[in-house]
Design a protein that fits this description.
The protein has 186 residues and is mainly beta. The chain has no helices and 17 strands. It has strands at residues 13-16, 19-22, 27-31, 38-42, 48-49, 55-56, 62-71, 77-90, 93-95, 99-100, 119-121, 123-131, 137-141, 151-152, 155-156, 160-170, 175-184. The strands form 5 sheets. It has a 5-stranded mixed beta sheet, with no helix packed on it. It has a 5-stranded mixed beta sheet with strand order 10-17-16-12-13, with no helix packed on it. Strand 4 and strand 5 form a beta hairpin.
């Protein structure tokens, strides 16, 4: 009798971020498995994937275990479970950059770090104002897709530190106010 022994794969992974805000937030997987050719992910909310590194969007809040089963062509498998791997929270998030470099070619920008606009998730109402060092308002918007291009009255503002004030209402009803500095670099 001949017995053939195959190497067992090793299932390993990491997740980012540990807290996902819904709606709109995504969970990113980092598959660190070896010796495997097939992968089965279980995100703990009744959904699965067979992609190597899937992205996942949760629909409900809660704390979820994430499972990865890695298997090879010889049907050998290994399972790793990350208990309470991700916490999904209803609400929102506002991430504000600290610098930007406006387009020298005129208002509007080209899309390369030339518009000052925070990244937002789960925000239902938004209001942003930008001021110079003397308190003069240079820009104001309530459109979450419209940011400051570094221009005031058609002219590029000088390289300096400006002040922003952002008032945002999350979809869960919570309202936040953020005030800070933004560096205009040219």
């Amino acid at each position: 009798m001949i017995i053939t022994v195959f190497d067992k794969p090793n299932a390993q992974f990491a997740l980012k971020p540990a807290v996902v805000y819904i709606p709109g937030g995504k969970l990113f997987t980092n598959n660190q498995s070896f010796g495997a050719s097939n992968y089965t992910w279980d995100f703990g909310d009744g959904t699965t994937s067979t992609e190597f590194e899937p992205e996942h969007v949760y629909k409900t809040d809660g704390v979820f275990d994430v499972t990865l089963i890695a298997s090879n062509a010889q049907n050998c498998s290994d399972t790793t479970i990350l208990k309470t791997g991700v916490r999904v929270v209803k609400g929102g998030q506002v991430l504000v950059p600290n610098a930007f470099s406006p387009s020298l070619g005129g208002p509007g920008g080209s899309g390369q770090n030339d518009i000052f606009l925070p990244l937002m998730r789960g925000v239902s109402n938004f209001h942003m104002m930008v001021f110079n060092r003397w308190g003069e308002m240079l820009f104001e918007t309530s459109n979450p897709e419209s940011g400051w291009d570094g221009y005031y009255k058609g002219k590029l503002c000088q390289q300096d530190v400006y002040v922003y004030k952002i008032i945002a209402k999350y979809e869960n009803g919570e309202t936040i106010t953020k005030v800070g500095d933004i560096n205009l670099i040219r």
